[in-house]
């Protein structure tokens, strides 16, 4: 199952809105086939693994990260392929939450196949967190907040000029996170200070480039910014206040729309996230800055917090990651569960669970 999870991750950025799924076929202690869902609309992991296994699948065990589907969508039911192949045992991690696709386990059992459920279930749930969150009927996106911080917890030095806190390896890991999301968001302060592109520039290109989202109550994003200038090729969404704070702000919003930017008007972060969900954003990756990060945490709208700690100390007057968060005592502060720890050269990426799957 661990191998199946590794295989499943290879589909990141290529299969959404479908889940990441990997499968391994084992016969007499030997792996005879393995596969993963590699492309939206393409073969599912089970079918890919069975094609490699061929006749060796007869009498074998299949390990798969998600319950085999039992419906016809863009491809036939995986249960049909499993039965035809002569698999005698199926072990899966997570039950399929989609009512249309579920029921595979029961069908396999009814056909006399031994079925086991729940192996490495939490790992598999984490892999498909955004998919499972949406499948439960969530009205907002799954929100991952990523911040690169210094050893003393700052996201920018005292000059506030752009600069890399983390190294190249960690930066490439961030691009993999981007490729796995539906949208990448920053606050307008970060957009103006850094003039970022917010695109995926390392690793496998996503099937659909994540749209870029700017939280910008006053519609201050410059028309000359890299984001606006590239809005025709990769969508840009600016989230402003429902009621413009001034006639100038209203005019700026209209100018952004004329430049090809989608403008969403929302009363606060909860309604903004609901509006993004309605546009097909199931997984929102937020990359700062301090004001937006603080507001999301304060409103309990962060599901996973990803902290990349660089090996620098920025000292006095550096910008704390959560500078705008109301003060809390140690006894009052929420304790977050560590999901994973990864080292990238001299940097460390820590992922914390804020909500449970």
The helix tally amounts to 12
Q: Give start-end ranges of low-pLDDT stretches.
A: none
CA-based gyration radius:
22 Å
**Quick one: overall form?**
elongated
Order of helices and strands: HEEHEHEHEHHEEHEHEHEHEHEHEEEE
Biggest beta sheet summary:
9 strands, mixed
In oligomeric terms, what are we looking at?
A: single chain
Distance between the termini: 20 Å
Beta fraction: 15-25%
**Overall mean confidence score, pLDDT:** 95
Portion of residues in helices? 25-40%
Q: What would you call the structural class? A: alpha/beta
Count the E strands: 16
Explained architecture:
The structure is a single chain. The longest helix has 12 residues, at 168-179. The strands form three sheets. Strands 11-10-9-8-12-6-13-16-15 form a nine-stranded mixed sheet, sandwiched between helices. A five-stranded mixed sheet has the order 2-1-3-4-5. The chain has 357 residues and is of the alpha/beta class. The chain is elongated. It has helices at residues 2-8, 45-53, 78-85, 104-110, 121-127, 129-135, 168-179, 188-194, 226-229, 247-258, 269-278, 290-298; strands at residues 22-27, 30-36, 61-66, 89-94, 114-117, 142-149, 154-156, 183-187, 211-215, 236-241, 262-266, 283-286, 304-309, 319-320, 337-344, 347-353. It is 28% helix and 25% strand.
Which labels suit this protein?
357 residues; alpha/beta; nine-stranded mixed beta sheet; five-stranded mixed beta sheet; 12 helices; 16 strands; 28% helix
């Amino acid at each position: 199952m661990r191998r199946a999870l590794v295989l499943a991750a290879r589909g990141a950025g290529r299969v959404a809105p479908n889940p990441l799924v990997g499968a391994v076929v084992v016969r007499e202690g030997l792996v005879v086939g393995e596969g993963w869902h590699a492309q939206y609309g393409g073969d599912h992991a089970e079918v890919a693994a069975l094609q490699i296994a061929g006749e060796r699948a007869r009498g074998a065990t299949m390990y798969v990260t998600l319950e085999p589907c039992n419906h016809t969508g863009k491809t036939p039911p995986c249960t049909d392929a499993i039965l035809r192949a002569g698999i005698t045992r199926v072990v899966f991690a997570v039950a399929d939450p989609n009512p249309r696709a579920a029921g595979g386990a029961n069908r396999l059992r009814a056909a006399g196949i031994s079925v086991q459920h729940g192996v490495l279930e939490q790992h598999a749930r984490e892999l498909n967190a955004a998919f499972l969150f949406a499948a439960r009927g969530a009205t907002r996106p799954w929100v991952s907040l990523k911040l690169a911080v210094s050893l003393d917890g700052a996201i920018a030095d005292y000059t506030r000029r752009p600069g890399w806190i983390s190294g190249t390896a960690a930066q490439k890991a961030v691009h993999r996170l981007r490729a796995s999301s539906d949208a990448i968001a920053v606050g307008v302060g970060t957009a103006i200070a850094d003039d970022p592109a917010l695109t995926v520039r390392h690793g496998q290109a996503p099937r659909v480039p994540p749209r870029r989202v700017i939280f910008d109550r006053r519609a201050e994003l410059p028309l000359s910014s890299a984001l606006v200038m590239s809005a025709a090729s990769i969508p840009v969404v600016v989230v402003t206040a429902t009621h413009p704070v001034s006639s100038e702000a209203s005019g700026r919003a209209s100018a952004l729309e004329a430049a090809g930017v989608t403008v969403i008007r929302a009363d606060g972060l909860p309604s903004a996230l609901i509006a993004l969900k309605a546009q097909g954003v199931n997984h929102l990756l937020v990359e700062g800055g301090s004001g937006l990060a603080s507001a999301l945490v304060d409103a309990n709208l962060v599901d996973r917090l990803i902290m990349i700690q660089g090996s620098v100390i920025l000292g006095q007057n550096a910008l704390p990651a959560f500078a705008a968060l109301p003060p809390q005592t140690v006894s009052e502060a929420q304790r977050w569960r560590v999901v994973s720890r990864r080292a990238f050269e001299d940097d460390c990426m820590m992922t914390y669970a804020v909500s449970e799957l």
